Amino acid sequence: MSYRENLHFMNAQLSSSFGISLQTGGFPFKCVLSLSPLVAFWNQVGSSGHTVKAALARTVQEELQRAPELLEPIENLSFIEKHRDLVEILMSMVFPPASWEQQYSAATIPFHFRSFYATPAFERSLMPEDGTFEGLLNLDGETFAYGKSLKAYLNILRKFYGIGLEFEYPLICTRKDPETGLDRYFKLNIDSRFLEVKTVGTLTPLTDEAKKRLRANLTDLRVWMELIPPENFEFHGFSVINALDVTDQEVLSALKRDLIQKESLISNPRFQSLQERLRTLLKRPQLVLSLAAIQGEQVFLLNSGCKLARHCIFADSDHYRTSDFAGSIYERSVREGKLLIIEDLTSDPAPSPIEEAIIQRGVRNIVVAPLYYQDELIGTLDLGSPNPGDLNAINAMKLGEVLPLFSMAIKRSMEELNTTVQAIIKEKYTAIHPSVEWRFRTAALRVIQQQNAGILSEIEPIVFEGVYPLYGASDIRGSSTLRHAAIQADLVDHLNLVREIFLLAYRHKPLPFFDEFAYRIGKTIAELEAGLGSGDEATTLDFLRRDVEPLLDHMQELGAAVQEKIQAYRAALDPHLGILYRRRRDFEESVTRINKTISAYLDAEQGKAQAMFPHYFEKHVTDGVDYGIYIGPSLVEDGKFEVLYLKNLRLWQLMVMCGVARQTERLKASLKVPLEAAHLILVQNTPLSIRFRLDEKQFDVDGAYNIRYEIIKKRIDKAVIKGSAERLTQPGKIAIIYSQAKEALEYRQYIDYLQAAAYLTGEVEEVELEDLQGLQGLKALRVTVNMQPPVIQERAAPAEMEEAIQATSGMVT
């Protein structure tokens, strides 16, 4: 039976038998508040022989004779208030007076989070006036009720049937701090020392068969209730909740999870979330987080006021040069390589322009820390507050665990930025594509003519109207996941090499430190093998450089075997990076070989296609290759164009994509990491306009209606087949995405011809796609590539292409 079926069954049983529901926190056992277990404990103390304790116990017993209702089951909590002084004396055995003001503890009705006695700290932070527990637990109400019932049954099993089974689930409660308004996290531990379970009527024995059935169905409450009816047991006494403040640990874990996310620094809500977590960690509700990324002489500032709408971390940030920060706290922090704290910026008699600007924004107190990745300065983090002294040397110590996490996040975002920058640089400094050079030449001549006539003018807009777009992409499947796994494997192998050195050193000289160090490394290896977090790489490399490397020179004196081991370890490291770089190198080399193979193949085939009819072609290389083609009358100087050339190019694209699929399949066997590529073609029959953007030095679609084509291009690689989780693009296949029936009809004729020519094999799949954001109604044809040489050679000559077009002369456009 599933977990949810268990809940539904329990709800039905409880509703019919007891009138309560698990979904509302119901509990199938009768619970009775009683101080009898605590009184029994006092009686035990009185007979212990200790003079002082015995005298105190006698006094308590005398007082209890005047308050007999406290010895009976307590159904009215007013009895507790009536005898408050006596209850406090009784509870002094449960809540040590020395920690009364600081400890978060409460006595509650059994299995119910309602307190009848609590410490001041618990009352302030976790309990409203009605005594009920308040806070957001880390599990839903159904799961909580389910766990309580299972815990109660395990108590019964242990006491009456001699079967000891444990069940613990960490309860974390989130509660707004009444003073700061920030989240606080408490781990709840429930103490059941003063809780007794009693039978009602005759105890039902459990046969061996019943015990065996219970062990086989430990989480099936239906079986528990059948074999051990809850109406036969009652719980008397009270529970004690001890809450431990684990805010720092929870916030650090949450920060690590957040910074793993790809958009942690480019999404304004996520950036605000990071800021809120840092406020919670440092217990300062007015902190403002700012980040700066440094690349050469350029500085890109991020802060919580930025409008981060684009998929580039620095798209809307403020740009500066490092010289702009001369004489500032930022320059000093970077120069000294350490965290700096200014308790009050206004106390500086000669602030720099940067500090003056910060003061104008209302910031008085600031902490600035440099961020490093593999010992290279990558940026800065600063936290500001309007209150002088909010941040100081004590609470700023917590940032030590946070800084590596932000370093990794900025590093990842810098890599994304560099990819974008490289593409822009290529386009800015690469000659205009030969197919459209004539148009730029005409515009330039017109400007010269106007200038000669004394007319001041700017170059006219370069727009090509009525052009047909073609788009194709070959994407390396799962590249991000494999890159992550390669980093993880290299770190584990690196630590294993180090651990072997310390184990060998311990055998030669059994210092406990060597054994402890090897244990620590082994623990880190186990954590890495369980999963690689955002800050784990930086933390591990920092540990190796700061803690391990300084010890190795001394350890070489322990003997020739240790010295040889250390030399072998250092020889295994990359000489430039100083780290183990095997798996990552294999992965990057494999990606590079695939990209180069696809790119070179496309370049060779593109030259032949240009000879058939001139057209505009652009290509982008990341983890795979995608390309765009435009063809139409406005792109040629004489304006002569026939639809035949569009058909020709579409068939050529499909044939070339088959060749790309064969190239990548053949390459896979020789790759160090056997990567696979998936391929797609986007079809659009409706012509559009493209405009050359002078500010970006590249072509872009023109007009709001045509933007839809660009949106489709950006989103279709993640498309899935409607009604399933299956990705449309699959290795060894080509997906042809379209939106109009006549587009499919045209390509079905191309496919029929290429199947006859042995380019394609198998049946044609026709599928609908799940709606994408802003895109509905897309469909696709999916075909399988024949990995053997086709009838027409892979690199078809223009004459052969013309024969292919003639063979499909009946196709529609």
Task: Explain how this protein is built.
By secondary structure, this protein is of the alpha+beta class. It has four domains: 3-245, no CATH class; 248-420, GAF domain (Beta-Lactamase, 2-Layer Sandwich); 479-582, no CATH class; 586-807, no CATH class. 44% of the residues lie in helices and 19% in strands. The chain contains 24 helices and 24 strands. Strand 20 and strand 21 (698-701) form a beta hairpin. Helix 16 (479-508) packs antiparallel against helix 19 (560-572). The longest helix has 30 residues, at 479-508. Mean pLDDT is 81; it is low at 1-25, 304-317, 421-430, 793-798 and 808-813.
Helices and strands in order:
Blueprint: H1 3-17, E1 30-33, H2 36-46, H3 51-65, H4 78-82, H5 84-91, E2 104-108, E3 115-118, H6 120-126, E4 136-137, H7 141-161, E5 171-176, E6 183-191, E7 195-199, H8 208-216, H9 221-227, E8 233-237, E9 239-245, H10 247-260, H11 268-282, E10 288-295, E11 298-303, E12 318-321, H12 329-336, E13 340-342, H13 353-360, E14 365-373, E15 376-385, H14 403-429, H15 437-452, E16 463-476, H16 479-508, H17 512-530, H18 536-555, H19 560-572, H20 583-612, E17 616-622, E18 624-631, H21 643-668, E19 677-683, E20 688-693, E21 698-701, H22 707-715, E22 733-738, H23 741-756, E23 760-768, E24 779-785, H24 798-807
Parallel strand pairs: 1-8, 19-22
Antiparallel strand pairs: 2-3, 2-9, 4-5, 5-6, 6-9, 7-8, 10-11, 10-15, 11-12, 13-14, 14-15, 16-18, 16-19, 16-20, 17-18, 20-21, 22-24, 23-24
